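Marked as duplicate of an earlier ticket. Keeping the data here for the record.
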Amino acid sequence: AVGHRGSLVVFGGRSAHDSGGVVLLNDVWVLNPNRTEWTQKLGSNTEFQPGPRQGHAAVLVNSKMFVFGGRQRISAVGDVWTLDLQTFTWEHLQPRSIVPPALAFHSACRQGVHIIIYGGKASSAAMATSS
């Protein structure tokens, strides 16, 4: 989740299913704290967006939310996406440098022009046994 223009923007996560299972999500919700009101945002390119995931990290850079990694089913992913918070359009980035390993349940923060990734789980075997 990131704060943007007085609102909270949330992407993905997991939800309990009626059958007792878990459903991974890839939707975007915006909370207006002044009204205590949630709005689901659908971008212009809903077919081109990150897959459902949990345990990812998000960082705000200008008006874009950068999303790195997370867990899809039983394995971590190492992809990078941006969501333009003015148009709600996704873009899949291909980093031009060394990339961290696929991670889930890590932290991220912005420091100047850099996004710093810290911690997390890289092993799909370790994640398969965690809840």
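See parent ticket for discussion. The chain has one helix and ten strands.
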